[in-house]
């Protein structure tokens, strides 16, 4: 089992240390947060990103709130923590893990004997469960990849995006452990998670990686260099439709046209059982300044940008959804619900 | 007819002024070249880019060589000019306009009464013919777009890429003149020609433009916002297969899957009559430092990049090729050869 080489989040006992991923790979700097508002801001500003990591960070954000407001004598502190949970819930809209984690923390908070210590235990369990799920998915995903000749991945789904090891990147780590093979990573505009994070993480583990422009993926597929695309997910509907980083839908359409298989790797905390299909997923639009050169950001400018940072891949373009509870091939509602 | 708002190349009478497009949109600076080697370097380093503009620049490069080496009394100067033409021919491999222009200059050089003045006349004719072709293509292309609701374009194919007005962007200018409609531009990694040049050019002409990440094109198509993709070309084979900026092939596959039409706009100087299909086109691979963050460019780095800057779109994914000699719908060798 590969050791964890990098951590997006570190709990100090009194604070949450968050690796500022916006500064990678040049600078590896942790910011320390001691209240829920700070953690919410770290999520909104994408110091920490990746659906599972966002959920884990929010869990510790609730713990910090409890530390701040707890009183052994009254129940008023619970309302203050609930108010902070509402702030955390508004930090980003698309990844369902955020809401799944907050639901778990809300249940812990609702226990009559809830204390900061019991909430901390819950947050730590969210974290360790995620790591365990990732190792399990790594093995299950690698089992599907016997004989694969090359893999393309998108965005960052590694240790930096999760509690550790990674989802799609965990599968890539696992399969590479069994048999080295070429790994390609999309740059992943506009934040360049592929260029800044994914190839950096892989190199930390001694895995060679080749970066490509997002728009070169079709030409790479046509060259025959890859037979699998492997991605993570921010939210999966009950029928298997999958919201993930913008560009994922494009890759899925292109993969189908080139006979390349398409794997989604995500823990069951990423499945939104309450929605039947991907049409019900809120797609985050981020500010146009993430795309536009500064000179266009003037009053009356004729240049604008359309910046949806997620898209939805229909289930019928997905070859396999890999979760810690098992693999669903050619996903359908029946298959996905069998994991529930 | 829209006025020309920007010029990539200016002939001063004794020098070629080249707008350094790498510095746009922040800085609008011309570099002045007085010999062919300088012009070749301006092409290789992408101060000037775009298939037609490269051809025109090379034409003036030959003129500068003639100025330098001409002697009324001997024929030795022709060999010096030929040697410079070989340097120019090696400046970039994919755009055939470079070789078409050099062939025209070679014919002028071979005339018994060739002088720098006759070569200058030939270079100027290459330039003015290109502008005339662009205006003609603008009208022919716009004729196909009656009732279009939105257009997506890729890379830069405007005045900056040509003698003036543009190929695909000329069509967009022409159709917008007739009836304003939404125009979307891909960023176009790795050089960001869309973000830096295309939306800038459009804004100069008062045309609003919306920038998107390259990987968002499929999601844009799925939204129904565009019904045409319009691109230029660097080389078109006799059967209609088209080499163009990396990402073009991806857009063509995605367009087909979304019922979006796909138009290639290029003067007949971009058609390589000598090759039957796109498999024979040399695809330029540029240095990986165009994609890789600097920290990976170290000895022994496990991170590399694959950086093909063109791809080939098969003719069967193209709805129309628009040239100054006419339009070929659903291009085939028969249709393309009819333009010869």
List the helices and strands and how they pair.
Two copies of one chain form a homodimer.
Chain A lengths: L8 E3 L4 E4 L10 E4 L2 H9 L6 H19 L6 H14 L7 H14 L5 H29 L6 E3 L14 H11 L4 E4 L6 H12 L4 E4 L4 H7 L4 E4 L3 E3 L4 E4 L2 H11 L2 E5 L5 E2 L30 E3 L4 E4 L6 E4 L2 E4 L3 H5 L3
Provide structural commentary.
2 copies of one chain form a homodimer. The first copy, chain A, has helices spanning about 35-45, 50-70, 75-90, 95-110, 115-145, 170-180, 195-205, 215-225, 250-260, 335, and strands spanning about 10, 15-20, 30-35, 150-155, 185, 210, 230, 235, 240-245, 260-265, 270, 305, 310-315, 320-325, 325-330. The mean pLDDT of chain A is about 95. In chain A, about 40% of the residues lie in helices and about 15% in strands. In chain A, the strands form 3 sheets. A 7-stranded mixed β-sheet of chain A has the order 6-5-4-7-10-14-15, sandwiched between helices. A 4-stranded mixed β-sheet of chain A has the order 11-8-9-13, covered by helices on one side. In chain A, strands 1-2-3 form a 3-stranded antiparallel β-sheet, covered by helices on one side. With about 350 residues, chain A is of the alpha/beta class. In chain A, helix 1 (about 35-45) packs parallel to helix 3, helix 2 (about 50-70) runs parallel beside helix 4 and helix 4 packs antiparallel against helix 5 (about 115-145). Chain A folds into 2 domains: about 10-130, Four Helix Bundle (Hemerythrin (Met), subunit A) (Up-down Bundle); about 140-340, Rossmann fold (3-Layer(aba) Sandwich), CATH 3.40.50.10470. At the A-B interface, helix 7, strand 6, helix 8, helix 9 and strand 12 of A face helix 7, strand 6, helix 8, helix 9 and strand 12 of B. Strand 12 of chain A pairs parallel with strand 6 of chain B, so a sheet runs across the interface.
